[in-house]
Specification:
The protein is built from 14 helices and ten strands. With 325 residues, it is of the alpha/beta class. An eight-stranded parallel beta sheet has the order 1-8-7-6-5-4-3-2. A two-stranded antiparallel ribbon has the order 9-10. The radius of gyration is 19 Å and the shape is globular. Bound molecules: flavin mononucleotide. The site of flavin mononucleotide has 28 residues, from β3, β8 and α9.
């Protein structure tokens, strides 16, 4: 399948694996890239630029296809060494960076001078237009249904994607709620040039996370996510669990007076315990409503082939028949 995104990134299929904390290691990124998509290593999961450089080298050993690195700019008590991470990305020969969170403008010149393509993840049309104006090559438009941080506007993809298509000149991928060939065809029909998936890629053989995490996603329905941290305007969609219920009880009790310090036990440093040790109630962890569409744990190659085959069949049979009737 050929779209502006496959052309821009030099990939076979318009399917991107979004950066995911403690999930986006070399094994997953390489598996996605080897299957013709664009795999992405999560930069900040590596605790230092040196460790990121090592992870990039590991990924180069696992694939000779293009892969990217995610750099997330979220509010943090102490800011990570972003210049160091960017240098590791440049030195590692990376050609695509997925930025997310705050405006990446101050980091763009260094990336662009190194010939790196930047795709910025946005949850609103105004942020997508800003990304386009500052020189990003593409955007990933993340609807309200997405796992992780959906922003504060709460616009689902059936509205957000055509709105983005109406306004943007640069290519964009649909992110949030994408799982199968139907999602891909719908995203293309709404004006996107491909899809970005998070939650769906966790439930794959190659995702280097504890099997409890994969089983929790397969067991979950579309009703099992919750929005947490809304009172501090850092909304995150997570899988419901004991920690989410505790956190939501604190939100109800403390109301707008709630501070980050009040919920630190539920959110800080919990990812290694969940993703690696499989302690499913250790804290809150991002998960999309798309869990309701995930019923198996295929290999990444099986998943991507299935999505492309299903999409092509929908387009060439179901839609073609309807259009010609
Ligand atoms: C467990 C998990 C961790 C994530 N961590 C990050 C992250 O560190 N940085 C980021 O930009 N996005 C992160 N995301 C968001 C994904 O990259 C992607 O945008 C989102 O999952 C898309 O929605 P979906 O889960 O419905 O596919 C995370 C998502 C999940 C499920």
């Amino acid at each position: 399948m050929k779209t502006r995104i496959t052309e821009l990134f030099g990939i076979e299929h318009p399917i991107i694996q979004g950066g995911m904390h403690y999930v986006g290691f070399a094994e997953l990124a390489a598996a996605v890239s080897n299957a013709g998509g664009l795999g992405i290593i999560t930069g900040l999961t590596q605790r230092s630029p040196d460790l990121l450089a090592k992870e990039i080298r590991r990924c180069h050993e696992l694939t000779d296809k293009p892969f990217g690195v995610n750099l997330t700019f979220l509010p943090a008590v102490t800011s990570p060494d972003y210049p160091g991470y960017i240098q590791a990305i440049i030195d590692g020969g990376i050609k695509v960076v997925e930025t997310a969170g705050n405006n990446p403008q101050q980091w763009l010149p260094a990336l662009q001078d190194a010939g790196i393509k930047v795709i910025h993840k946005c949850t609103s049309v105004r942020h997508a237009l800003k990304a386009q104006a500052i020189g990003c090559h593409a955007v990933s438009v993340d609807g309200f249904e997405c796992g992780g941080h959906p922003g504060e506007d709460d616009v689902p993809n059936f509205i957000l994607l055509p709105r983005a298509a109406d306004e943007l000149d640069i290519p964009f991928v649909a992110s949030g709620g994408m799982a199968d060939g139907r999602s891909l065809v719908a995203a293309l029909a709404l004006g996107a040039d491909g899809i970005n998936m998070g939650t769906r890629f966790i439930a794959t053989q190659e995702a280097p996370v504890h099997r409890n995490v994969k089983e929790a996603i397969v067991a979950a329905s579309e009703l099992d996510t919750r929005l947490v941290m809304r009172p501090i305007r850092n909304t995150e969609r997570v899988l419901n669990n004991a920690a989410a219920e505790r956190l939501l009880a604190k939100e109800r009790r403390l109301g707008p007076a709630m501070k980050f310090g009040d919920i630190i036990d539920e959110v800080a440093g919990v990812y290694p315990r969940i993703m690696q040790q499989g302690e499913m109630d250790a804290g809150v962890w991002s998960c999309g409503m798309v869990a309701g569409l995930i019923h198996d744990v295929p290999t990444v190659k099986e998943l991507i082939e299935r999505i492309i085959n299903e999409a092509e069949t929908i387009i060439s049979r179901r839609l073609a028949q309807m259009a010609s009737a």
